[in-house]
Amino acid sequence: MSNRPPYPHVHQINISDGGVPKLPVWEAKVQEEGLEGDRQRNLKYHGGPDRAVCLYSLELIERLQDEGHPIDAGLSGENLTLSGLEWDLVKPGVRLTIG
Questions:
Q1: Which of 18, 35, 73, 84 could be joined to 12 by an S-S link, Cβ 3.0–4.6 Å?
Q2: Domains in the chain, number
């Protein structure tokens, strides 16, 4: 049995000074230009006021690990590693409340 809460939750918050891996932090605010403390090196193609906050599934990471892939939270460049989310319900226009 898992020690995880029985509801969707943030497993890990990840930021970097540019590139991957993104490293875990205890907290970060979502700001107009993305997640506080997260940076991009190539500002020609990344960054700006329409910058994404990237989400990724902990359950998918665990399935890939079971298949032998060297992956962990933050290694895919995601800002938020989430657990328990029903990804089929996440479509364009859906708003998530986090925190």
A1: 73
A2: 1
